[in-house]
């Protein structure tokens, strides 16, 4: 018996597991191709590279939390709309009562939406796909309504510096945000009891429950985390563009989920990696940037980007 | 009594939707004993264990663990009281490693409060070393074979240093040598005063490891006695009881066997079956008997094209037939009534008519449009033929009783008019009245010239439904006997209930023999 089970084990080693590292390989390959073909158009210019980071930061922040949501076997489609709503609440609070009030308003927006999503999913029993799909519309509607669909300017230089606009020497503050959150997220998922419970809940809910894990509370918490991250992304959008607009973050949920899945996080739960997610997000930014430099128009960019993502995910699938 | 019992459950009752699973059952386990918990399927063993470890809340009765009364009835409370249990692979997360699973929710921490997987791997390795078995603590559980998973489950239960250790069928996938090592270890635990509850269908194991036994039947306590007072025959008698009486009055007409419709030659699946030979004639019901993990359901799945045929040959009407997908099996005239009715057999929210015609929609559509009147005709014909009790053909299947749902599954397949019908546990979770109806239906279908493979864990059912019984263990056929061979000539023919009971004892004994043969069989 033990002999047969040993024979059934997957062979280990780099060669057998190359699919697991496809995202890293792909990232390097695409980077090298762009570097070789687009260097005369300024691809390797440090400013261009930092731009990629700036454009990817909000996606990365949301994707870190999305890694937890997907790992727990849930999904959050409301992140883009919540980010947009937060830009509006932050901008309005700053206009009324200053930057500190703005930060508090942003966090409160994320907390409120997240708790509502979590409550709908774990207490009422609406699948997170539907609960957050509905929330996507609600958040966007509220943002349009309270701002009367107009942009709300932010006239606080200190807020804009901290949330997205500033740099420390050559390093954009946005990069600092991403690095800190990535480090915290990585350790949290890999090395804390909470992260282990998230992976167990998504990997086998019954088994997790039998092992004494409160899977409902785990799901509730990842959905709150996700909305908080979306709110933070909204605060960064607001700071970077010095205004609140309901359109900001529109459609981001797809890039966020794509980043996590490209990075190796399973859509079916139980497997996730924050580092992979960050690389996935950077890869999407890299592709966007390269395609723009190539001079493709927007329609061609969309097609090329879709094709590359399909290819990467297809290559990373484990054949069984 | 000076020392309090490790576990004392008094008057425990539990019902599920009107079905009484436990009826005022008493169960007591002493420190330092191995206490066997025995009973047939549906006797209430799993239910009482789930009540004890807090998964189910009892409707009535009290539970004391080490003298303290449990009140919250949650898994956390039971764990805190010192109860640990293996869950037949139910508590393993496939995407985590062995070590991560063993210490799930009890992870070792580094000084800074982070999870220390290296430490968990060391401790897991130490447990496996203590058990003298080889399991890689860093392997992902989803990649392990059944035996290794089972050892991981056991290690998980042991690692909790419990005062009460519950082992539910811990050896179904273990090699003989591993079972031996487990027993050595259990004796050590016993000497330390741990109370061990041991559930198994394997009488030989019970005889070797248990000090006392409690037998349940139909949710009721039958007997608790030291093993010295319970020879295997007596044990089997208590387990079997006289519950067969509902089946005993089924007439058994002799059938005329026709040509061989289905023949398996050395059929081997991914894990099981392992070189299985089997022939089923027209007009014959062949039963597959055996314990959990004997490879009966796997055989059914290979025949139906759900699992791949790794080696061997499936012949239908004497010709080898390639069966690689369920569609090919259906095309070859094979229909499987699967084990898990709700998930694999019906779409509960859809109507009876829609479920009955799901398999033959091609024939009931014209230019891609459903032919409503033909669908109504076919559905009504099946409802009449199988005597399905339903508010109407448009009622959702979920509103039907378990027995009638099963008839819908069977009807669905009969609509396609297969020659060969494979039924996997067709009466699981069905009351005794519907059971005999289903068995009568199976007999009728055989009389109409179909070849039937009948899988059941209920011996009385096998003996009532089948013309021939093949006993399987470890993926192979170990015995192949006509139904008459299980009759005890010393019991008068008129005494049908006793005759069936005697036959059950013989079949039970044959299963135990097959098991031993399977374990001694060296597998290279």
Report the principal-axis shape of chain A: globular
Largest sheet of chain B: 6 strands, mixed
Q: Order of SSEs of chain A, N→C?
A: HHHHHHEHEEHHHHEHHH
Strand content of chain A: under 5%
Secondary-structure-derived class of chain B: alpha/beta
Shape of chain B: globular
Mean pLDDT over all positions of chain B: 85
Low-confidence stretches of chain B: none
* Rg of chain B (CA only): 25 Å
The largest inter-chain interface, given as chain pair and residues per side, is: A-B, 33 and 35 residues
> What distance lies between the first and last C-alpha atoms of chain A, to the nearest angstrom?
22 Å
Number of helices of chain B: 18
Helix content of chain A: over 70%
Quaternary organization: heterodimer
pLDDT averaged over residues of chain A: 88
> Which bin fits the share of residues in helices of chain B?
25-40%
Entry summary:
The complex is a heterodimer of chains A (320) and B (524). Chain A is mostly helical and 320 residues long.
Task: Explain what you see.
- The complex is a heterodimer of chains A (320) and B (524).
- Chain A has 320 residues and is mostly helical.
- Chain A has helices at residues 2-7, 22-38, 46-71, 79-97, 99-124, 128-147, 157-165, 173-191, 193-203, 205-210, 215-241, 252-262, 274-293, 298-316; strands at 152-153, 167-168, 171-172, 243-244.
- In chain A, helix 5 (99-124) runs antiparallel to helix 11 (215-241).
- Chain B has 524 residues and is an alpha/beta fold.
- Chain B has 18 helices and 22 strands.
- Chain B is globular, with a radius of gyration of 25 Å.
- The A-B interface holds A 1-6, 8-10, 187, 190-193, 195-197, 199-200, 202-204, 206-213, 266, 270-271 and B 55, 75-76, 79, 87, 90-96, 100, 104-105, 107, 113-115, 133-134, 139-140, 143-148, 173-175, 178, 271, 523.
């Amino acid at each position: 018996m033990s002999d047969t089970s040993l024979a059934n084990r997957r062979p280990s080693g780099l060669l057998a597991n190359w699919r697991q590292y496809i995202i890293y390989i792909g990232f390097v390959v695409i980077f090298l191709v762009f570097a070789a073909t687009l260097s005369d158009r300024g691809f390797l210019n440090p400013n261009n590279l930092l731009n990629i980071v700036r454009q990817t930061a909000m996606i990365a922040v949301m994707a870190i939390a999305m890694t937890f949501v997907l790992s727990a076997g849930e999904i959050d489609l409301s992140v883009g709309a919540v980010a947009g709503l937060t830009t509006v609440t932050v901008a309005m609070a700053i206009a009324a009562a200053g930057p500190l009030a703005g930060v508090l308003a942003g966090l409160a927006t994320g907390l409120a939406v997240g708790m509502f999503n979590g409550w709908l999913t774990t207490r009422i029993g609406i699948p997170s796909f539907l609960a957050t799909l509905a929330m996507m519309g609600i958040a966007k509607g509220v943002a349009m309504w309270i701002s009367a669909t107009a942009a709300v300017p932010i006239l606080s230089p200190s807020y804009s510096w901290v949330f997205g606009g500033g740099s420390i020497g050559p390093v954009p503050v946005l990069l600092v945000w991403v690095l800190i959150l990535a480090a915290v997220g990585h350790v949290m998922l890999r090395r804390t009891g909470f992260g282990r419970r998230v992976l167990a809940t998504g990997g086998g809910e019954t088994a997790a429950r039998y092992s004494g894990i409160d899977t409902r509370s785990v799901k509730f918490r990842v959905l709150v985390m996700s909305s908080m991250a979306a709110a933070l992304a909204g605060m960064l959008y607001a700071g970077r563009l010095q205004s609140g607009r309901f359109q900001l973050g529109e459609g981001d949920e797809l890039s966020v989920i794509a980043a996590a899945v490209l990075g190796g996080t399973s859509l079916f739960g139980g497997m996730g990696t924050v580092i992979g997610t960050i690389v996935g997000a950077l890869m999407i930014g890299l592709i966007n940037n390269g395609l723009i430099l190539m001079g493709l128009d927007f329609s061609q960019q969309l097609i090329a980007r879709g094709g590359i993502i399909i290819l990467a995910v297809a290559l990373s699938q484990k054949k069984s | 009594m000076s020392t309090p019992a490790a576990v004392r459950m008094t008057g425990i009752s539990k019902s599920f939707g009107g079905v009484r699973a436990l009826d005022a059952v008493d169960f007591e386990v002493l420190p330092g004993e191995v206490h066997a918990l025995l009973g047939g399927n549906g006797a209430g063993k799993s239910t009482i264990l789930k009540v004890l470890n807090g998964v189910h809340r009892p409707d009535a009765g009290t539970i004391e663990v080490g003298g303290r009364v449990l009140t919250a009835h949650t898994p956390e409370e039971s764990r805190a009281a010192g109860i640990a249990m293996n869950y037949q692979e139910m508590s393993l997360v496939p995407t985590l490693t062995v070590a991560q699973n063993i210490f799930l929710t009890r992870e070792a921490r580094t000084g800074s409060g982070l999870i220390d997987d290296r430490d968990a791997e060391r401790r897991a390795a130490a447990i496996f070393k203590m058990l003298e078995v080889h399991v890689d603590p860093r392997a992902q559980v989803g990649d392990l074979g059944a035996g290794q998973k089972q050892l991981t489950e056991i290690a998980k239960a042991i690692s909790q240093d419990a005062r009460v250790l519950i082992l539910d069928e811990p050896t179904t996938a273990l090699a003989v040598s591993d079972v031996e090592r487990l027993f050595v270890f259990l004796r050590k635990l016993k000497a330390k005063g741990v109370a061990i509850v041991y559930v198994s269908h394997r009488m030989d194991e019970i005889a070797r490891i248990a000090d006392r036994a409690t037998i349940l039947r139909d949710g009721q306590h039958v007997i608790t006695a030291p093993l010295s007072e319970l020879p295997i025959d007596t044990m089997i008698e208590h387990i079997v009881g006289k519950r067969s009486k509902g089946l005993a009055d089924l007439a058994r007409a002799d059938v005329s066997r026709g040509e061989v419709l289905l023949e398996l030659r050395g059929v081997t699946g991914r894990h099981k079956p392992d070189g299985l030979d089997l022939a089923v004639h027209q007009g014959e019901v062949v039963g597959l008997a055996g314990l959990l993990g004997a490879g009966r359901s796997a055989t059914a799945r290979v025949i139906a094209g759900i699992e791949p045929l790794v080696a061997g040959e499936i012949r239908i009407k004497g010709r080898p037939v390639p069966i690689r997908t369920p569609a090919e099996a259906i095309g070859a005239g094979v229909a499987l009534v699967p084990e898990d009715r709700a998930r694999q057999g019906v779409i509960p929210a859809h109507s009876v008519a829609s479920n009955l015609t799901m398999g033959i929609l091609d024939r009931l559509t014209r230019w891609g449009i459903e032919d409503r009147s033909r669908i109504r005709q076919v559905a009504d014909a099946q409802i009449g033929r199988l005597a399905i009790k339903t508010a109407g053909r448009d009622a959702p299947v979920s509103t039907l009783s378990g027995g009638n749902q099963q008839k819908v599954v069977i009807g669905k397949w009969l609509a396609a008019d297969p020659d060969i019908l494979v039924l996997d546990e067709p009466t699981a979770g069905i009351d005794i009245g519907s059971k005999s109806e289903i068995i009568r239906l199976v007999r009728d279908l055989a009389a109409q010239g179909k070849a039937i493979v009948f899988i059941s864990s209920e011996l009385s059912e096998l003996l009532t439904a089948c013309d021939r019984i093949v006993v399987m263990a470890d993926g192979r056929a170990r015995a192949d006997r006509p139904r008459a061979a299980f009759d005890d000539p010393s019991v008068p023919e008129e005494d049908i209930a006793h005759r069936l009971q005697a036959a059950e004892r013989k079949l039970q004994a044959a299963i135990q023999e097959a098991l031993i043969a399977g374990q001694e069989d060296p597998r290279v």
